[in-house]
Amino acid sequence: MKYLRKILPKTLKSKLRIALFGIGFFPYFLILIYSYNLGEKKILDNTMLTYHNQMTQVKKRVEDQFLSLQKEMRFLASLDIMNDMIVGDVDKRISQLLMQKKKDLGLEMDLFTLTSEKKVISSTAKSLPHDFAYISEFNKILRKNKNYFFTDKSIILFTPINSTLQKNKLLGYLCLEYALSNLDSYTTQANGIRSIFYHFDSSAKIGDVYNNELLLDIKEQNTQYVSDHYLVLHEQFEGIMSEWMIVYMINKSVALIFLDSFILFVWALFALGVIIIALISFWISRRILEPIAKLSDATKSIISTQDYTTQVSISSQGEISELANDFNIMVRETNRAFKILEEENQVRLLRFVQLINIFNGLIQTQTEEACITLAINELQILMPHQHFSFSQEYPKQNEGNESNQYLMLYVKDFEKQTSDFYGVITLGESRPITDPHEEKFYRSIATMIMLQLDQIRLIEQTQAVSHAKSTFISHMSHELRTPLHTILSSTQYLIAYENLTHHQQEMVETMQSSADHLLGMINDILDLVKIESGKVTIDLVQQKSDEIEVLTQHVINMLEVLAEQKEIPITFNNRLTKRMKVTIDIRYFKQILINLLSNAIKFTEYGSIDLTLEKCGESLCLSIQDSGIGISEDDLKNVFDEFSQVKNKSKNTEKGSGLGLPISRKLARLFQADVIIESKGLGYGTKALIKFGSSLVEENDQSI
Q1: Starting at the edge strand that comes first in sequence, how are the strands of the sheet with 224-226 ordered?
Q2: pLDDT tens per residue, range 162-204
Q3: Model's pTM, two decimal places?
Q4: Distance set, CA 89 to CA 166, 219, 416 (Å)
Q5: Which CATH architecture has domain 537-697?
Q6: Under CATH, domain 78-184 is a member of which superfamily?
Q7: Domain range summary for the chain, segments of one domain joined by +
Q8: What is residue 242's DSSP assignment?
């Protein structure tokens, strides 16, 4: 270390020269080292990463094409026209449809239909073969529950065709013979790059390769490997092409040609740079050091004395002289800025506090008149020497008044999406406002007034629209109930007193069920309108937990017949160790429980429904746990949205208005309770929880 200190220069000039030379020299040196040692590996890695990404895109396009073809086939198989297979496609409508679809897809392929006996009845081929050439392969694939198989030159895709006239009747199969030559368009044959699709078991390939020997070691290698002359990359397909892989072969000499040119360029630049850097470092060190020393001394003086009147005198010319002059100007401007900043901070702080006070007052106003009056009064308090006034007439500019002596107010017309003139506040200044900060202050006040006026108008319009909507829904619902009752009475009369055939009986019962469903939906809408309009009256009573148990058992007895029809047992368990009291509306509590238990029965096909009365935290909870279809995570977020329904996957039906859960939650919150829905996902059942708002342990507690 001591020997190293003796070698190192002592003066700043020598240190600066060495530092400048080193700064310019070492980047070239490092680039050369990097290029020789790591450049080739880096370029090869980047090349492999680039072509892996390209392989992934090609794989996705191929897989997407097969998915698209399968969707097209399923769509064609579901058309009513496929019923012509029953009569052997006499009118050739199926053949015409298949020919048009082949033309639309623009691929080398053929579409044809097979009967359940594997006879061809329609095809896009020029000649119509009556016997299917791959019956044995077709039957093997059917036993494996697959919908495709490979031949030497094609892929056969097929999908069953079911009759739309007779449920679950198999008419035959729609088949698509996709030529493997279509995949040639996805291969690459560029300079230095080849790509193919390779089937390892059969050694079949699509596309050309540099050397077939490169394919021999693919199974033993990893995802990629580097030979003496080539990079070989491969990835396995998914889906239909899962037995195939995509293989890329890149010529190493093409990939590394840029590196060789770059190294030659760096060597030439390095030689020239060393000479130039040495000369520049010598000159800069001499030019900079002396003036910098003076600037350093002046800076130290300012720091120690806080005297911002200090100036530096430098006789040299050029950038250093300009730097010294700029330093002197900076010191003077800093001194002046400190004084101005102090004054402006005081003014801005005062204005800011004033704006906050005015804003706090404005946001509490509820009418336009109150908003304008409050603004005028607040401005008058802030500036008592002025006289502020409000007018709804547009000011006349030809009277010699300056435009900045007015606060122009505009309000939004939310229906027309325009801004209309509302009025003007006159500042009462005898002189024009020249201070930009004062002008901004007044403009800020005008903006706050306009925002509050817009908010007041928007609230009024929103309230009016909401009232109109509620009134309309209420009137329409009442008007619909009368004809619905007439329909129900008529259907009940027909069922009870008319001698109807079995088919007529079913039709009348369907009419009655639909009318009942519509009447229930109208009642739900009326309940929702009453809740939202605040017209629901509640009768709060305090109930003990054993009384809650009685009410719950009563609801279970009402709905148990629905569960017995589906052979679903309903159990009820009171897990409380001490009696508790809650405050509820009995009628609405029973309505909520009926809604939740009905849902549990509706969406449970087998299993059981368990009701539990228990303590959760400091509150009392009643839970309804079913073993039904459950709710997905996405549906669970929307179960309390109005008119939102959870689809019954087992029956593929949706029944109800979608208002049961929203109404139940709104009714529960009327007596400070809540309804919570939980589910671990589809197939895991659903748990509905009524959580009472306020609970307390009964005086003179007795264990249950």
Answers
A1: 204-206, 193-199, 244-251, 230-236, 224-226
A2: 888 887 788 899 999 999 888 888 888 877 788 888 887 777 8
A3: 0.37
A4: 18, 49, 59
A5: 2-Layer Sandwich (3.30)
A6: PAS domain (3.30.450.20)
A7: 78-184, 537-697
A8: T
